[in-house]
Amino acid sequence: MTNEIKDRIKKLEQIKDRSIDPYPANSKRTHTCAEAADKFNQLVKKKSKVILTGRLVLIRLHGRSCFAHLEDGSGRFQIYLKQDVVGKDQYKFFTKSIDMGDFIEARGKLFKTRKGEKTLQVTGWKILVKTILPLPEKWHGLADTETRFRQRYIDLLANKKTRDIFITRSHLVRWIRDFFDQRGFLEVETPILQPMAGGATALPFITHHNALDLDLYLRIAPELYLKRLLVGGLERVYEIARCFRNEGIDWSHNPEFTQIEFYWSYADYHNLMDLTEELFEFLVNNLLGLKKGARKLELEYQGKKINFKPPYPRLEFRKALIDQTGIDLEKYRDLKKLAHQARRLGLKIEKIWGRGKIIDEIFKEFVRPKIINPTFIINHPIELSPLAKKIPDNPNYVERLQLLIAGLEICNGWSELNDPFDQEARFKEQQKLRKKGDQEAQRLDEDFLTALKYGMPPTAGEGIGIDRLVSILTDTKNIKEVILFPTMRPKD
């Protein structure tokens, strides 16, 4: 324990010795710091009593008076304590018992200093929280990445940029809700604990329910439950969903993440692309404070200019692969020959990989990083998309889209497969991959097949990664920067 912490604990005991509660339950704030600044002239004119509350982030002693800065969730405001005004005992109590970081309530009237700074002349005050741990010495602009992610509360205190990112994230989620609500979509909730992990190609987390003596899975996607709702007659649904995938952690992946998935009856993947362009234009307009139809929708991400103005290019998966690698998937239908081509490019191929996995890894390594401006990759090989409809005149491929921005997959969607027998056959192909050792292959969901047999209307569905979207729109490279409490390896 440092001397400073010992000193703060001693001050805490001294406060208690005065029969003062250092952690009272109530305060009587009349205005936030921002409101005091915005309504300053009106409050001065009316000689209004103002009560501010917040954390002390700066204290400047000048003998029998002192200036301090009080900070709340809305901003900062200067306060001024003078011994002649608050009384000798209260002034001494403040200077001897209060530290930087403590929370106080200050009441008084507003005035401007000689330098024109808006200030509260304190006539009385009380302590709200006595802090024990001092703020880091260099908490203004805390730069240590490990500390920032593990102790986000310090990061939020220290870095305005961090606070701004999460405020922007909150706005973006609200705007997304507004967008879909205005178009007749119904927000719903589906299970996070599922008896079978489905709806995506990923390895799930497993937990156990004691009362039922049943293994359950944290959902990897809400897709199959949302589509059950379409069978039940809800034509437009969406969920802003927490999902969990037992995968590696890097700058663009976190095992716990947020996405929006939405499903739209009587639409196909062409409709999805149009709607996605409309959504992104809506979000960027709001972010930049522009009106609908603005000519320039440009943001910077990691030194690159990203143009969000629709329409976005639509590039076929097969052609993109040919352009970047020279590999034509139709010439390499054989698994061994395709694997040979992948090795020629420098990829390490595992024995358990099927054709779809190899294609996906080639695409991720050699195509995706090259795409900067928003671009739809469409018409994927069927092996990559066991839940998507086949293209009628090209059954080796499906009606699927991915929206790529700055080398990241932001959106993924397709015309939904609603033929129960085709879906069953696709699930069985996935089961073969599981038997070969591919733990990410999808499981055969009998209840979902039963639901499809009752009839699901023609539908298009899409998922949008909220974390990656926020990263792009706030010019933030590491996804941990946009997740309040990212998954971290324990220190010990």
What does this structure look like?
The protein is of the alpha+beta class. The protein folds into two domains: about 5-135, OB fold (Dihydrolipoamide Acetyltransferase, E2P) (Beta Barrel), CATH 2.40.50; about 155-315 and about 375-480, 2-Layer Sandwich (BirA Bifunctional Protein, domain 2), CATH 3.30.930. Helices cover about 35% and strands about 25% of the residues. It has 16 helices and 19 strands. It has helices at about 5-15, 35-40, 40-45, 85, 90-95, 145-150, 150-160, 160-180, 225-230, 270-290, 315-325, 335-345, 355-365, 420-435, 445-455, 465-475; strands at about 50-60, 65-70, 75-80, 105-110, 120-130, 185, 195, 205-210, 215-220, 235-245, 255-265, 300, 305, 315, 375-380, 390, 395-405, 410-415, 460-465. The strands form four sheets. Strands 6, 10, 11, 14, 15, 16, 17, 18 and 19 form a nine-stranded mixed beta sheet that branches. The protein has a five-stranded mixed barrel with strand order 1-2-3-5-4. Strands 7-9-8 form a three-stranded antiparallel beta sheet, with no helix packed on it. Helix 12 runs parallel beside helix 13 (about 355-365). The longest helix is centred in the middle third of the chain and has 23 residues, at about 160-180. The radius of gyration is 29 Å and the shape is elongated.
